[in-house]
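--- STAGE predict ---
source: upstream dedup step, 1 unique chain passed
mode: sequence only
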Amino acid sequence: MQQAIKNDFTNLQFATPRAVQDVTGIDKSAFERLLLLADFSVTFSGVFNPAANMSHAVFSTISSTSVTRLVTLVVSSKTLAPNCLLTDYALTRATGGAFTFSVPGVLADGQVPTWS
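--- STAGE serialize ---
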């Protein structure tokens, strides 16, 4: 079941890096590299929301399940939708009383993250 929980987010970071391999021969004066595997990582940050069908309902099961989750990001009508493993649901209560969360995720299934 998909749930739109973007209202609870105050910050979002994601990256689509590629690994590289150094293949520089001793006859070179600069690096030569090959592109290797693609990856994806994401971190959601936001305000704790215990309401039904909101962020807490989605993230509270991270510690007790090992399910792959479809993460759909839409930016200016372009969509990136990798399957991710969400690895933590860290909650923080600041001295001023703000109650926030941070949820990191990583690529789960070996499929290259591709914008559509």
